[in-house]
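Chain A, query sequence.
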Amino acid sequence: MKSTGHKALVWVEDVSLLVIALLAVIAMGGEIWTMIQKMHVGLADLLLLFIYLEVLAMVGLYLKSGRLPVRMPLYIVIVALARYMILDMKNLDTTRMLAVSGAMLVIAIAILVIRYGHVKFPYIGNNKNNQ
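Chain A, predicted structure.
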């Protein structure tokens, strides 16, 4: 029973990840189609495509290794905050701009701390294939 439940959860997880990947590809296609129609590509458009690409890479890495890459969502957040700043720069006051920049700095420091932890204290034998 326990093995069947675990297999069912793994199956649901894999199907959900494939749905996320498919929806990211559809969203990328829609964004590219919008750029083609407007005949204009802006920095915000490229950053949005980069976010979709990072989501796809994160799904691929998880399916390949069985590990949820903790740093990749943090990279996505930094890019999303940069995109937010670019799109709303005219509407951001100094305090809000400093707050968003500070959030990006805190996330970057968190990435460095996580990376240091992975180098200093590596995981051994903890992947999907060994379970």
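The longest helix spans residues 2-38. The mean pLDDT is 89.
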